[in-house]
Design a protein that fits this description.
The chain is α+β, with helices and mostly antiparallel strands and 159 residues long. Helix content is 25%, strand content 36%. It has two helices and seven strands; from the N terminus they run βαββββββα. The longest helix has 31 residues, at 121-151. The radius of gyration is 16 Å and the shape is globular. The termini are far apart.
Amino acid sequence: MAVFQYFKEQRIPASIDEVWEFISDPKNLSKITPDSMGFEITTPYLSEKMYPGMIITYKVSPMLNMKMTWVTEITHVKEKEYFVDEQREGPYKTWHHEHWIKEIDGGVMMEDLITYQPPMGFLGKAANDLFIRKKLDEIFDYRRLAMIEIFGSFKEKSA
């Protein structure tokens, strides 16, 4: 029974208020998800701000253009610090995604930590090695570019 973790970070040249305002609105998720995922939020009455206990339903096509339902629950929220979404229904046996933001010199550091377990035991491990990890890289590479388009590129200050 293999459990994996995936970590990404990105520096964003914006205030913590601006970044939180953007990432805590579930409707913005489609703006940072590749079109190839066929991502569509299907929750009929969706709040503009995430809150603990919020259920969000989606249709996604992660592979072979096959639509599947994904249901997540926002389990924890600490305003302008983090929120956590956990899969309630979907392709993984376990999916726990922590979204963190913190102020840094010149902007915000955004960090994502996903702890996940593919289904089907040893076949799930093979699937992770063959394509799940690559798909996560593709999604987060797209998101990095989308966030740059929205907020601009982070410029390191010279000493």
